[in-house]
């Protein structure tokens, strides 16, 4: 993900990348990857989109230990022409969009500590690599991510980054997909989270709403807890088509006079899969 008002850290290249320095990971850091990997690998079959599991397989992402980005990039390059590059933390929007538009996924190199097992503020290598990289081996999703990067560069010129960032949030990070076998997870924020990979699919609390680009881009999101809204796509082809074929300029202009929507809003025009009780959010608010 991206963030502004930060400076290129010392030791990083102009494009904010740094060497992964795989050799310097400790045994404890590799063990943390294995612990997280085991937990999610047990959780995800039957919950995550089949393309995600295929990606894990094609990229031979497994134990033991944190993947070496060079080896991972070799396999990813053969599958879809993408690479994984290390960055020290959150990067500015323009740098982030530029990497995506050039089929480079930026990933944190650090891994969480045992005290941060279930919550950390900045994305670590487990979130970035386990959560995001498997779907980059899928040709349609890989094209969507590049198209998003190109859309980001256009949005920057139109003053629409905030609205576009919601598309990333509600698809790449927290997206759900309807399949013939039922609803599945594909967002990295869910797939890399032990708690949210159950909550997002099974809990009666959140709304689950059919994907609608403009509706989604008006919807605020929360960064401090599980989502109150999830958007459900029909296919990755649908996602790619909307992003590639849409001229965002008129959409942003059309939306300019429309207010943002709250995280738990439901509109009469929404195609609802679940009308959430919002019981979880209420319990946390009191
Ligand atoms: Fe992420």
**Hetero groups bound?**
fe (ii) ion
Kindly state the percentage of residues in helix.
Answer: 40-55%
Computed over alpha carbons, the radius of gyration is: 18 Å
Structural class: alpha/beta
- What oligomeric state is this? single chain
Count of the domains: 1
**How far is the first residue's CA from the last residue's CA?**
30 Å
- Give the amount of beta strand, in percent: 5-15%
Strand order of the largest sheet: 4-3-6-5-7
- SSE ordering: HHHEHEHHHEEHHEHEHHEH
Mean of pLDDT: 92
Rough outline: globular
CATH third-level topology: Phenylalanine Hydroxylase
* CATH superfamily label: Aromatic amino acid hydroxylase
Low confidence ranges: none
Q: What is the count of β-strands?
A: 7
Any descriptors?
single chain, 286 residues, Phenylalanine Hydroxylase, two-stranded parallel sheet, binds fe (ii) ion
């Amino acid at each position: 993900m991206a963030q502004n008002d930060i400076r290129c850290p010392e030791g990083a290249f102009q494009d904010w990348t740094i060497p992964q320095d795989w050799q310097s990971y400790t045994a404890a850091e590799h063990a943390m990857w294995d612990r997280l990997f085991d937990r999610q690998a047990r959780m995800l079959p039957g919950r995550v989109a089949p393309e995600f599991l295929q990606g894990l397989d094609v990229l031979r992402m497994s134990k033991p230990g944190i993947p070496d980005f060079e080896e991972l990039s070799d396999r990813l390059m053969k599958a879809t022409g993408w690479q994984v590059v290390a960055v020290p933390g959150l990067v500015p929007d323009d740098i982030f969009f530029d990497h995506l538009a050039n089929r480079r996924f930026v990933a944190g190199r650090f891994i969480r500590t045992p005290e941060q097992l279930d919550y950390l503020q900045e994305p670590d290598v487990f979130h970035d690599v386990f959560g995001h990289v498997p779907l980059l081996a899928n040709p349609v999703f890989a094209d969507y991510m590049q198209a998003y990067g190109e859309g980001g560069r256009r949005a920057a010129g139109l003053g629409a980054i905030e609205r576009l960032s919601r598309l990333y949030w509600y698809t790449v990070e927290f997206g759900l997909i309807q399949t013939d076998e039922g609803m599945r997870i594909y967002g990295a924020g869910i797939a890399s989270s032990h708690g949210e990979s159950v909550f997002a699919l099974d809990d009666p609390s959140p709304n689950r709403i059919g994907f609608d680009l403009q509706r989604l881009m008006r919807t605020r999101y929360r960064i401090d807890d599980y989502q109150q809204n999830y958007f459900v796509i029909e296919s990755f082809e649908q996602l790619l088509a909307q992003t590639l074929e849409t001229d965002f300029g008129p959409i942003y202009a059309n939306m300019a006079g429309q207010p943002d929507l709250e995280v738990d809003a439901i509109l009469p025009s929404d195609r609802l899969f679940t009308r959430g009780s919002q019981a979880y959010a209420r319990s946390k608010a009191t």
